[in-house]
Design goal:
The protein is α+β, with helices and mostly antiparallel strands and 72 residues long. It has one helix at 49-61; strands at 2-9, 12-19. It has a two-stranded antiparallel ribbon with strand order 1-2.
Length: 72
């Protein structure tokens, strides 16, 4: 299940997303937007989704993307 909360402050739009996945280890968190990075290969994903999404929003909107995760 995915929960999304958006907040607007001054000139910022903050979007926070949370899911009920297993989490990502601190060693891998900085690599999740790298092309072909795949944290879990169970579902046949090739690891391009976050990379494409990051590049679109970063190039067009000059945004900062931050991610945090907790295992389990």
């Amino acid at each position: 299940m995915l929960y999304t909360v958006t907040t607007v402050t001054d000139q910022r739009l903050i979007i926070r997303c949370q899911d009920n996945g297993q989490g990502i280890s601190p060693e891998r968190i900085d690599k999740i937007v790298d092309p072909f990075c795949n944290i879990s290969i169970e579902y046949g994903a090739i690891g391009l989704g976050l990379s494409i999404a990051y590049n679109i929003v970063h190039q067009h909107f000059k945004v900062t993307v931050k991610c945090s995760s907790e295992l389990n």
